[in-house]
Amino acid sequence: MATILLGAQWGDEGKGKVVDHLSASADLVVRFQGGNNAGHSLWVGGKKTVLHLIPSGILHPRTRCLIGEGVVLDPQVLFHEIAGLKQAGVFRDERERILVSERAHLILPVLKEVDLIRESSSRGTSGHIGTTGRGIGPAYEAKARRIGIRVIDLYSDDTTLLGKLDRLHEAYAHHFEPATLSEIRERTWALISGFRRDLAPLMVDSTALLKQAHDSGQEVLFEGAQGVMLDLDHGTYPYVTSSFTTAPSAGIGAAYPKILRSSRVIGVAKVYLTRVGSGDFPTEMRGDHDPDEVRIGESIRKAGGEFGATTGRPRRIGWQDLVALRHAVEVGGIDEIALMKGDVLCGIEELQGVFKVATAYETPDGLRMDRFPARAEELSRLKPLYETFPLWKHAHPDDPAFATLMSRIEHFTGVPVRFVGFGPEREQILER
Ligand code: IMP
Prior knowledge:
The protein folds into three domains: 2-102 and 204-266, Adenylosuccinate Synthetase, Chain A, domain 1, CATH 3.40.440; 105-199, Adenylosuccinate Synthetase, subunit A, domain 2 (Orthogonal Bundle); 270-431, Adenylosuccinate Synthetase, subunit A, domain 3 (Adenylosuccinate Synthetase, Chain A, domain 3, Alpha-Beta Complex), CATH 3.90.170. It is globular and about 65 Å long. The chain is α/β, with parallel strands linked by helices. It has helices at residues 15-23, 75-87, 109-122, 136-144, 158-171, 178-199, 206-215, 250-253, 292-304, 322-332, 400-413, and strands spanning 2-7, 28-31, 40-44, 47-51, 64-67, 72-73, 98-101, 105-106, 203-204, 220-223, 264-270, 273-275, 316-318, 320-321, 336-340, 354-362, 368-369, 383-390, 417-421, 429-431. The site of inosinic acid has 21 residues, from α4. The site of inosinic acid (IMP) has 21 residues, from α4.
């Protein structure tokens, strides 16, 4: 049986906690897209673990973790995380727990440098995406340009690999002074022998692995990164990530799609909204309609610890937006919702006992809109039309106010709220 877990907003929904809960019964947890732009914070026994690349399921001793071919893999980050997990006593030998697809593309130093150069040169323009600066976009770009380097390429003879590396570096040469490019080439080549040695025991034919898991009836959990609203096709383009974050992507980025025929797709959503990087969202607490919103947003950011797990950037805060959530349910292929972090709002005095949820927008011409628009420029011009809900005392289905919010979400999106997260600790989640 396969389960696919997706972010149903703009990332940072609390997926790590749901993955951790579900992977207690999983044999295999699979990442199928993105790279170390993700950041899953997990609290186990009062200790915080942040993982960027290795699936969160690693914290369960029985679970094996696969990094599929749809992922762009920075080997330096992988080995750093492996060392940290070993030191924390999570495992002794990574070969028993971590597998890497031979077809996954590598994030090499030149691609990280290009991401950073583009980010700093576009700052202040509409072309500024506010990426995590980890080389994710350039790695997917190189893959589409057919100049990417894959894990399996490391095991070609030196001449063949050097030829491929030359092609990659030449393609981005215009970004660098010749001396800088030479330094990057040398630095990359110096890293290669370590990558070859350390990745070899982890490398697998992931299709064979998944076929075997399917044929032997294993539980496989596909762990999405980022969120549906950051999907390259269905998100708020161009302010999106460079991979596909919807359920069908799991059949491409970890290629044994037959295993997904009867899968269950869970979309994780916070009770409120956050976003990092550029790009508008209609319900952002910007204070243009209500000056108090800025203060409310600040309190939520503080109470919810809403700072990027990867970059530390403060996350932008907004009210719940059911038009966006329904869009995510539809394009993401989501069957059930996991509703997270309702507990964060309980003590926030600035809310004055009321929580707002957008259920439509008004255009500048006064028209009512209840579908999420395709044009990113439109988003800041839409006025959200809100329904108000009494604030709950406990983020729990037994609390009447929280139950009212849950049933509105279910009615609007057409899918049930199956999980409720009510605190950061591992146990603070319930399945209905
Ligand atoms: P990139 O994925 O680093 O290229 O960044 C593209 C956009 O996606 C930026 O707005 C990032 O802030 C956003 N993004 C990427 N990964 C995450 C994530 O895990 N959580 C939230 N936003 C993300």
